[in-house]
Amino acid sequence: MKRLSAHAAFALATLAAAAVSAWQGLELLRQQRLHEAVAAASRPDAAVARDAPRPVRLAHAAALAKAGAFDEAFKLYSGLVQPGGGDSISRDAQYNLGNLVLRQGLAQGQRGDAGPLIELAKQRYRDLLRADPQAWDARYNLERALRAAPEEDAAPPEEDNEPVERREISLRGMKPGDLP
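Predicted structure:
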């Protein structure tokens, strides 16, 4: 009786291992098909269906942007961005969209009409940083956009900066005026 229960336990363990192997094999095939579709979509002249998987559409948008088809790439990236930027595809699309708009803004900056594009890039980077505060590339690019088009701070008028009360303070061991 002991031998029969030991054989049954090994048979169940073998069946479980076989099921896990079969599932992983199917997952591997699915991933291979997805990688082939992404590789095929990485050409700007590739035809990508609207219902294609999101990674395929992201790869196609990147290929279009690299080829200079900015309007089509903008539409694809915008379609991939989800509110809240919860998944990695949405965050990647948001980042690439910010880069696309910033490059166009910097290129048009030579002519002087880059303001709206750089502002849009700043907004895209800020949206991404709200969803993922650890996106250091987005932080860096936001800083570049802010240097290209600084934002004006609303400073109060000069007459409001007068102190209400002045006091002279002396500290032992310090000369007057040494305080930072």
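Summary: The mean pLDDT is 81.
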